[in-house]
Each structure stands twice: as C-alpha cells, then as structure tokens.
Please model this.
Amino acid sequence: MKLRKIVVTLALTSMLLANVTAGEIKAKESRANSTASESVSSETEKSEESSLEDEKNKKGIDVNEYIGESAFIGSSIGIGQRMYFNRQGKGFLGNPTMLVVGCYSFYNDTRPSGQITYTAPDGTEVTDMAKNLIKLSGVKRVFVNMGTNDIYMGAKKTSEKYKEYLKGIREENPEVVIFVESMTYATKSTYENEKKYFSDASIDEYNSIMEQYCAENKDMYYIDVTSQMKDAEGGLAAKYCSDGYVHISFEGYRVWTDKLVSYVENLINTENKAKEAVDKYLRKGTEGYYRWAAKKVDLLKDSTVKDALLAKLEGKHLEITVSSAQKAFERYSQTGLEEDYQEALKLIALVSDEELFEEYRCQLAHEHLNKIGQKVLEIRNR
Model:
C-alpha cells in the first residue's frame, strides 16, 4: 500500500512539475531581467559613457565624409544652397552632390523640361528624374527640400505628392537614407500678396505632416532647418531673405547649415555610442552589458544601422545564454543541489529563442523530477 502511494505521488508530481517549472522559470526570468538591468551600476554606466565620449573625441565625428556621400535635392532655393556651399571653399561638407534646378517641383520632375541635370565625375552630363540620378551618382544619403513650388495645392495635397515622390526615390534606391528638410517660409509681404498660396499655417501644417511621415518610415529623418529663420510677426525674417520673397540669404543658409550639421553630428554620435556599446558587450559578454547595449541600440530610429546592431547583439546574446544554460543544466544534473537548480532556472529564462527555451525547460523539468524521485526512494529505503 505504501509503495502504491509513492507511485501515485510520483505520477501526480510528473503531471504538475512541468507547469510548476515553467512558472518558476517565468518568475526567474522577470527577476533575472531586473537583476541584470541593475548589474551595471549607475557609476559603471557613467564610466562607460565617459569612455565612449573619450573614444569619440579621439576618432572625431566625420561630418564631412557623411554629408560628402550625400546628394541635396531642391529648386532655386537649392541653387542658393549650392552657391553658399561653394562660397565656403573647396571640400566644404565633403563636396556633396547637388541635384538642383530652378522652379523644380513634384510636377515637373516627370517632365523633361523641368528635370535635373547631373554632372558625373568624368564630366558627362545626364538629365533625368531625381530618383534615377540618385542611383547614378551612387550616393548613400539624400537631403530633400521640396514644396515651395507646390504649396499652392494646399498642405495636405502637397504632402501627398511629397510622399509619392519619396516612395519613388525609395523604390529605386532601397538602401539610401532620406533626410527631409523642412520647407522654408516666405516673407510676410508674400503672404499678403499671395494669400491663396502662402501662409505660416499652411507651411507649418505641411511640415508637420512630413515630420510624422518620416517618423513612421525606416531610414527616413526629418530636420527642422527653417523655424529659426521665422520672424516673430510671421513669415521669413528679412535678414534671412535675399529678395523679399521666398529665397534665402547667405545668413539664412548659415543658420540652415548649422542646424543640419548639428543634427547629423547628433545622429552619428548616437549611432557611434550604440556601436561602441554593442562592441563592449561582445568583449565582456555579461548580462548587464547586454542590457546596457540594448538600451543604446533602442535609442536609434528604425534603420539599417539599428537592424545590423540588433542582429549582432541578439546573435551573441543567444550564443552566450544557450552556452550558460547548458552548463548550468549539466552542473545541476551532476550535483542535484537546490542552488544549482535555481541557477539553471535563472539562466534558462534568459534564452530568447522560444524553441530552445522550451527544450531546456523540459529537460530541466525532467531532470528535476528524476532528482525528486531519487530522494523519495532514498527516504523509503531508510
């Protein structure tokens, strides 16, 4: 009768243990994540931040190289920007490609009479749609300033045209990073003379729509380069306007360029910190450094840079956690100690791959059941 009770007890234990172990592992996972997040103390994190800052200062942020591998797309306002860049001297911002033409708009981008001419390094000239010239030039990034010659359609319709235009660029150039620069304002007198077309409200609405669009799309950034040039009473401030209409003075282009460079510097800095944090984890391999690196990568907008870093980070994390879980399981199998069982629970909970997690969970549950069975038999045989 006693033996039968023991057998029944073991059977019930077998039925319950898998569920109990799963619950224990999930609880351990929560505690492990919390503990791991704190394993790099605030002082250590500050030290790492300081180390990364020192590394950045040693390497420098190569804004010229970054922008030099880019193209700028625009209308007559873009022509003024090209003149400003040229005035700063040879090599300014890495000599980016300037795809600009007067009166350029979404409409005439598709018409031969209004398309852009690109001069290749060998001197060959090609006139085509912007999306094709981007591919031909081989640039990695594009800075686009559009809308001034289209805003007469209203903010909503113009922004829809802009989205179609950007989709065309993306289809032909899937790996290019796109920067949408805010549409510039017109002078107050222009608003008064062309109320049907221009107003701060319509331009602000247009910019807001495009900012949201960029936020929702991968490898696409919005840069507000023009709000600082706005007059307190509305419109483009006189000192930033060259003709009392919509065109920008050199002082305006200076403000524009400073904002653009600052934005790019911050972007490069954020990406570099994420890269350094991932590299640090690859060297250290601790859970605390993994959490720290994951936090840095999470600060990045959806992009190919973020995807690559996540793949590297998660791949290494899976490799380390699987190895640690396997070792912990083997140690518990050998010792049968409660502390080794608890350690195995904690490490198995960190395995991110669901199939591997389930495999180790079942193995641990089975091994734990065997250990309990052995203890029951030991008690019975005393």
The longest strand covers residues 70-74. Strands lie at 70-74, 97-100, 116-119, 125-128, 141-144, 177-181, 220-223.
